[in-house]
Amino acid sequence: MSRKPADEAEGVIEDNEYVNAPVRPEDKAPPDRRLLFSSPSLPLLAVCWILLLLIMGLRIYFTTISDDITEMNQLRENLLAAKQELRNLSEQLNLEKEDSRKKLNSLKLQLENMTQHYHVSEGKNTELKNEIQELKTENQELKTENQELKENFTKQITDLEDNWEKFNVNRAQWTIDSYCPADTSKVRTCSACQRGWYHIQKSCYVFHNSEAPSDLKTWEEARENCRGRDADLVVVHDEEEKVMRDLRERL
User: Which residues face 204 on adjacent strands?
Assistant: First the structure.
């Protein structure tokens, strides 16, 4: 058995007294923070948080990349469709360009033909102008001649009217003298036929019997002579033999 020294015993007693003594607030010291950092679970917790944040960041990153890839694929499809549409439009424009080129060549050919026709028409127009000028000159001359002819016709019509009046007077006088001849005492006796004509039944007859060769006429000439006297040649039929016999008896 051993015993502690007295000093140590007193120290133990003091410690016991200290332990059993009530603790005052001002005597209570704050916990040592270094003990917390020195705990063995703190590094593991930090690593877990770091891994969790890394996983969340990677998830967000890959989600964003996936959305971007989907959007880029959609954009690529849209660009391919637009490219195909542009290609079709380019082919259509090439066809329209070829058609326009053909139409342009046709229009150029038509323009050349129209230019040639224009020059030909210009020459014809000049000729027509000259002809029109000549026609105007001829028209003026014709107007002058027409005026002269009109004056001549007016004079001739006036002369004809005067002659017609004289002819009517002479014809009336001749008719009076033919149908109502006057005797030596100037007394007129009218008959149904002209002087020198014979009234037989309902008609008047005249008979020409000339043996001179110069007075001989053909049928047509004799008929024209009769028509000039407002008469006609006699056509002898059986029923008219009595008329001709009476005419011969009077001659």
Answer: 199
Is 139 part of any domain?
A: no
Residues in the chain: 251
- By the 10 Å C-beta count (0-12 exposed, 13-18 middle, 19+ buried), 109 is classed as exposed
Q: How many domains does the chain contain in total?
A: 1
Query: Which pLDDT tens digit goes with each residue over 198-236?
Result: 777 777 777 776 666 677 788 888 888 888 877 888 776
Q: What span, in angstroms and rounded, lies between the C-alpha atoms of 170 and 174?
A: 6
Question: What residue type is assigned to position 73 of the chain?
Answer: N
Q: Please tell me which residue, 14 or 220, carries the higher pLDDT value.
A: 220
Q: Is the pTM of this model over 0.85?
A: no
Q: Could you tell me the residue range of the domain that residue 223 belongs to?
A: 196-250
Residue with tokens 């003091």: 14
* Sign of the dihedral defined by the CA atoms of residues 15, 20, 26, 31, in that order: positive
